[in-house]
Amino acid sequence: MELRKFDPIDFLDSDEALVEYLNVALEKNDPKYFAKALGNVARAKGITSVSEATGLGRQALYRSLFGDGNPRLDTLFKVLNMLDMRLAVTR
After folding, report:
1. What is the pLDDT at residue 9?
2. DSSP letters along 31-87, please?
3. Three-class secondary structure of residue 89 per DSSP
4. Do the Cβ atoms of 39 and 61 come closer than 8 Å?
5. Structural contact between residues 10 and 4, judged by C-beta atoms closer than 8 angstroms
6. Which residue has the higher pLDDT, 19 or 88?
7. Of the candidates 77, 72, 87, which has an alpha carbon nearest to the alpha carbon of residue 23?
8. Nearest CA-CA partner of 26 in 81, 74, 67, 85
9. % of the chain surpassing 90 pLDDT
10. In a designed cystine with 75, which of 37, 38, 70, 71 is the match (CB 3.0 to 4.6 A)?
């Protein structure tokens, strides 16, 4: 049996899956966790296309959304806007 490393983008194959994945990530209430989840969504959509659509360089996206990156709010909004998604605040 061959095992491969789990990669969430293998399961991010529909808009509904992307939205659900990001909503679950938001529930963790951890900015770095959400940034990494958004990075996974960007990888699922194609980093090059996200980079071109947002005007953010590929390296800037990788630095912001992966590892110990701490993306600026405008970076998050640019990526979410490109994905036609919005954040919502609820009580």
Report:
1. 94
2. HHHHHHHHHHHHHHH-HHHHHHHHT--HHHHHHHHSTT----HHHHHHHHHHTT---
3. coil
4. yes
5. no
6. 19
7. 87
8. 85
9. 74
10. 71
Cα 17 to Cα 10, 14, 56, 63, 91: the distances in Å are 11, 5, 24, 24, 24
pLDDT tens profile 16-30: 999 999 999 999 999
Domain ranges in the chain? 8-15+34-82
**Portion of the chain with pLDDT greater than 70, in percent:** 100
Going by C-alpha positions, the residue among 17, 16, 34, 15 that lies closest to residue 25 is: 34
Query: Is 0.85 surpassed by the pTM of this model?
Result: yes
Structure tokens at 39: 């990075």
What letter represents residue 26's amino acid?
L
Of 72, 73, 70, 42, nearest to 58 by C-alpha is 42
